Amino acid sequence: MTAMVTNQQTAVQPIKTGQLVGIFKAIAPRSFEKTFEGMPIEAISHAMKICIEDLSREQIDLGLRMVRDNGFCPDPAMFRKWCLGITGFGTEQQRFVDSFKGKHAALGNIVKWLGDNNHPITNAEKEAYDRCYEMFAEIQWAKNIDRASYLAYEAFKDNYVDVVKEYAEQGQQQAVWERPVGIERKIVADLGEWGNGSSPKDTQPLQGDELKKYLEEAKQKIKGFKESAGGAA
User: Fold this and answer.
1) Disulfide: which of 17, 59, 125, 232 matches 121 by Cβ 3.0-4.6 Å?
2) Cβ neighbours, 10 Å, residue 20
3) According to the per-residue pLDDT averaged within each range, which of 7-16, 155-164, 212-221 is highest?
């Protein structure tokens, strides 16, 4: 009877979560950084403690073998499921997510691309940027540039995380973003030339941010043209 009680106590004895987190990091260091990006070690350890508090040593060893065999670091909730033998829960999707860059690396890449549009970026990075384009566009006009930049960067990172999850669900791989064929300026051009019945002179392709800016300016020109035409009538 005494031996049985002792064995049960041994099976559920507390495990040092700090050591467990260190094992995660040692097995899959790059995946660990992506999974827990920007999160304090203390918070990771506390979350891990909550998720493994009633697990046996054997169950935790099973979970660690899953980390080893899959080659990436799960979040604490998923790790618990692995420990309990629920091996199919989110495994493939997590592996897919892990194949993408982390949000900080993605932001750094976008910042480089904004300075040089020839710098390569990924499809996920471009999609995340497009979702908060206006916030980046407002930086140059902001009274507090540092604050505007911070908000734009945080919005980008949040959007990037969402985009990666969406791509994982759709089975869409990370790939280098290819610049679409430019739209010629003759679509909207100088309204003054149009009024004279002539064609736009500048027909060089517009792309990326330049295209967006041009179309916004064109909308304002068209609006002003319509207002002036209505007034003349």
Assistant:
1) 125
2) 20
3) 155-164
Cβ neighbours for 17, distance < 8 A, ≥ 6 positions apart: 45, 46, 48, 49, 52
Please give the model's pTM, rounded to 2 decimal places.
Answer: 0.51
Domain layout of the chain by residue ranges: 2-90, 103-170, 183-226
218 CB-near residues (< 8 Å, 6+ apart): 187, 188
Round to whole Å and give the CA distance between 153 and 114: 12
| pLDDT tens-place string over residues 91-111 | 566 667 777 888 888 999 999
Read off the pLDDT of residues 28-76 as tens digits, 9 standing for 90 and up: 888 888 888 888 889 999 999 999 988 899 999 999 998 888 777 888 9
> Average pLDDT, whole number, for the chain?
76
pLDDT at 10: 44
**Can you give the three-state secondary structure of the chain, one letter per residue?**
CHHHHHHHHHHCCCCCHHHHHHHHHHHCHHHHHHHCCCCCHHHHHHHHHHHHCCCCHHHHHHHHHHHHHHCCCCCHHHHHHHHCCCCCCCHHHHHHHHCCCCHHHHHHHHHHHHHCCCCCCEHHHHHHHHHCHHHHHCHHHCCCHHHHHHHHHHHHHHHHHHHHHHHHHHCCCCCECCCCCCEEHHHCCCHHHHHCCCCCCCCCEECHHHHHHHHHHHHHHHHHHHHHHHHHC
User: In angstroms, rounded to a whole number, what is the distance separating the alpha carbons of residues 159 and 156?
Assistant: 5
